[in-house]
Specification:
Helices cover 17% and strands 5% of the residues. It has 76 residues and is mainly alpha-helical. It has a domain at 26-68.
């Protein structure tokens, strides 16, 4: 899981692109917003945890905005 270092960033995504080398990579990776990364790290530290299970919805195409489950620190 990769996040940017701007803890106030809650809307600007960074594209994770192919490096065009044709290498086979089997390491799962994803980008999350800086605010989300900050809150996850903060809660892990607060509760003295080394790891957590995080559920992230992958396809929100057909979900109406008012039905989306967003983290509590995101105002919408």
């Amino acid at each position: 899981m990769i996040c940017d270092n701007d803890i106030s960033n809650d809307d600007q995504y960074i594209d994770m692109i192919d490096d065009t080398t044709k290498r086979n990579c089997s390491i799962p990776a994803m980008f999350i917003l800086g605010r989300d990364g900050f809150m996850i790290k903060k809660n892990l530290n607060t509760h003295n945890l080394m790891r957590a299970i995080i559920n992230i919805p992958v396809n929100m195409t057909h979900v109406l905005p008012h039905q989306q489950k967003k983290p509590p620190w995101i105002l919408w």
